[in-house]
Amino acid sequence: MNTSALVKEYFREEKLPHIWCPGCGHGIVMHAVVRAIDNLKLDPEKICIVSGIGCSSRASGYMNFNTLHTTHGRALAFATGVKMANPSLEVLVLTGDGDCSAIGGNHLIHAARRNIDITTIAFNNNIYGMTGGQYSPTTPTDSYGTTAPYGNIDKPFDLCNLAKAAGATYVGRSTAYYAKQLTTLVENGIKNKGFSFIEAVSSCPTYYGRKNKKGDAVEMMKSLKDDYIDIKIAEKKPELAESKILMGEFYNKPEEEYTEKYQKIIDLLKKEQ
Amino acid sequence: MSNKIKLLQGNEACVEGALAAGMEFYAGYPITPSTEIAEISAQKLPAIGGHFIQMEDEIAGMAATLGGSLAGKKSMTATSGPGFSLKQENLGYGCIAEIPCVIVNVQRGGPSTGLPTSPSQGDIMQAKWGTHGDHPVIALYPNSVQEIFDITIECFNMAEKYRTPVILLLDEIIAHMREKVDLSSVDRIKIISRKRPTGPKEGYLPYKADEDLIPDMADFGTGYRQHVTGLTHDVTGFPSNSPKVALDMMTRLMKKIEINKEDIIKYEEYRLEDADFAIVAFGATSRAAKDTVNRLREDGVKAGLFRPITIWPLAEDALIGLSKKVNTIIVAEMNMGQYVYEVERVACKNCKVEFYGRIDGQPINPDEIYDFAREVLK
Q1: What is B2-188's CATH superfamily?
Q2: Which residue among A12, A85, A273 places its CB closest to the CB of B67?
Q3: CATH annotation of B267-377
Q4: CB contact under 8 A, A266 and B46
Q5: How far is residue B229 CA from its own chain's centroid?
Q6: ipTM of this complex
Q7: Sheet holding B303-308, edge to edge
Q8: Does the pLDDT value for residue B1 go beyond 70?
C-alpha cells in the first residue's frame, strides 16, 4: 500500500497535520506502526491503541482505530485492563521515554513481568518535549536540559535492557532513520503472543538538539543512521561496533501469555461446576 | 428462599452485591481494611468467566478498572484511605471520559498511613473534592451488611445509568462486621446496564448526549471506533481548546447528575415525624445515633435521626426541610468536622447546628452522643 492509501485507510485525515515540530522523528515512528499493522492485515476494529501523555502519546488521536489517550504514565495500566477484560483485542501502547520509564516505570516492568499480550512502542527522544526540554530517564549523562542547566548527573536507562530484565518476551530497538527495520520489529512484536517492547529512537531537534548543539533536524537524522549498528553485524564484526549503539532484535523467546493462563483457570472452574 | 439468607461480612456482601449487579472485572491492590473485597473477587470472578487482576499499585488498579469498563465489562476496584488518595487522578479521568465503574473506599484513620486497622469517616470531603477540577460525584454510604449488599448493586446501577464513576464509602466497622443478609433482596432491584449505540457505526459520536444528557457508550472492539481522552473534548471525543466546547462539556457533566438528584439521593428518616431535635449521622456512627435517639425518646425528648445514604450529591432539600422542623441538629461523624460544614451551610439559617466528632480510631458510641446531646439540650 502506498503512503497516501495508508493515510486514507488508517489515519483520521481530518486530525492531520499532526502537532509535532518540523524535524521530529515521531511521525516516522507512527508511520512504521501503521505500516506494520497493514502488513499483518489485522482487523482495525479489533485494534486498541493506548497512549499516555507527552509528544509521543498524541499519536493515538491521529490513528483510526479504537484509541485511548490516558493519563501521564498510565497507558500500560489502562491497556492491561482493556486486554484483561477483552483478550480478543489487539492492544498496542504508544508511549514516550518519560511516560514509560519515569512516571510509568512501575507499570512497564510489571506489564513485562506478566507477559501480557501488549505491544509497546516507546518513542525515545531522550527529553520531555511537550513540557519544553527537561531531562528524562533516557537523557545521557552530561547532556543538557532545561532542568539540567549544568549538565545531567543522572545515569540513563537502557529501556530495552530494562524491559528484557523485567520479563518482556520480545525486545528490539531501531531508529526513525531505519524505518523498515522498525516496521519489522513492530510486526514481530505484534506477532509475539506476550509482552513485546520496541524502543523507537526518535529525535527532538527543538529541545534536545538545540540544548545539546546536535545540529539541525537533518544532522540529527544522520546521527540516527550513523550512531547505530545492528546487533547481528556487531556480533560478526565487533570492531565496527565501537562507540555505536546496538539496534535490532535483542530478545525473542515466547512464553505462555498472561490472559491465556487466566483463561485456563476459568476453563478449569467451568469443568468443576 | 432460605438458602438466600447468609451470614456475611460487610466486605463479602459488597462483592456479592457487585456480582449480583453484573460485575465481570476487578482490578485492585491490597490494602487494609478493604482487602477481603479483592480476595473474594479473585476467588469468585473466574468462576463466572470474569476477570480479576492484582495490579502493581493503587494507581494502576484504578486505571485498569477504567480500561476494563471501556472494553465493555462492569468493573470495580476497592481501596482504603492512602489508596483512595492515589486513585484520585484517574478517578477524575473516569469523570471527564464518562466511564462507569465503582470505587469502594473502606475508610480508615488518616492522614497518610494513619490508623490502618481503625475506623474513620475522614474521607467524606475527599470523596467529593479529591480529584482536581470541578466534576460530578456520586457517593453512597450504607450502614449495615444487608445495605452494603443492596447499595453496591445501586452503585453499579448508577454508574451504568449515568456513565460516571460511583464511590461506595464504607468504614472499617461495617466492612468487617458480620450480619444476616437476605440475598433475595436483589430480586426487588432492577439491574441496569449502560446504553450502547445501535445506530450506524460510521459517524458515531461518542459524546453526543441524548435528551437525558447521557451519551451512548460503545465497547472497544464492536466497530464503533472512538477516541477517548482525558483532555476537554467535544461530542466527537477529540480534544478542543474552544471555550464553548469546554463550557458545554462541563455544563452537561454537572447537569446529568443535577437533574437526576431525586433518583440518586437516598436517606433514612427515623422517628423524625414529630421531632424537634435531630441527629445527622451515617455509616457505623448512625447505628450508635439511632440508639441515642431511642434513649432520648425515653427521656421524653422528641429526637429523631436523619441518615444520609447518598453522601454526594448532598441531600440539600431534605436537610433544609429538617432544619425548618427542628430546633437543633447534631452532626456526629468520625472526623474533625466534614459533613457538618455542608449541614451548616444549608441549615444554619433555620436551626442550631452542633458537631460531635471523634478521631482517635475508636467508634463513636451511643453513650457519648447521648451525653453530648444532653449537654446541648441544657
Answers
A1: Thiamin diphosphate (ThDP)-binding fold, Pyr/PP domains (3.40.50.970)
A2: A85
A3: 3.40.50.920
A4: yes
A5: 24
A6: 0.97
A7: B267-270, B303-308, B277-280, B328-333, B352-357
A8: no
